[in-house]
Automatic annotation (TrEMBL):
Transmembrane segments: none annotated. InterPro entries: Glutathione-S-Trfase_C_sf, Glutathione_S-Trfase, Glutathione_S-Trfase_N, GST_C, GST_Omega/HSP26, SspA_C, SspA_N, Thioredoxin-like_sf. It comes from the Bacteria. Signal peptide: none annotated. This is Glutathione S-transferase N-terminal domain-containing protein. Residues 9-87 form the GST N-terminal domain. The lineage of its organism: Bacteria, Pseudomonadati, Pseudomonadota, Gammaproteobacteria, Lysobacterales. It comes from Luteimonas endophytica. Belongs to the GST superfamily. HSP26 family.
Amino acid sequence: MAASPRMRNALTLFSSVDDVLCHRVRLVLAAKGVTYDLIAVDPQSPPEDLLDLNPYHSVPTLVERDLVLYAASVVCEYLDERYPHPPLMPVDPLSRARLRLAMLRLEHDWVPQIQAIQLGNKQQAEAGRKRLRELLTASVPLFKASKFFLSAEMSLADCAMAPIIWRLQALGVALPKDGKAIEDYGNRIFRGPGFVRSLTPQEKNLRELPE
């Protein structure tokens, strides 16, 4: 089935209402100030449009006219190039490669722990919390090194990291003893109007915004 006329004429995002990868894309859109239509999706019962558009039936899925993109990393890089201001990737190839590698590690190492906590049994959830706290502890020097994650300016890496930090309290994951740098990092981003715009009502209930 072809995309509906409404979707052909607007940027449309199929998104779960509480998913760290979908939140990542919504944060990029908010940082860019892009207007779009949001279609809330229950991943257990995806709508027919999504079944037709995306062979994996996954979210996030972005539709712009005849273009259909899926996988958060692909969608985010497209949005950064499609809407270049403000830029969310550095100019030089070395820094871009480092940020891409950091985002890949977040997807492969961090996100599965969140999914285990949210979707797994009690044993899997506890293992996910333990591993996520280990990853946070190991990353403290990176949060201390720069104002943003691996960069002096906000980047796509922050759009991937901030939704994770936002969920820590709700996931039952305490910061490490020397985790003030992580808390300060999160608060810098959470206070921004773009971050507030990126939140669904369900995500707003996960914790309080900093004053």
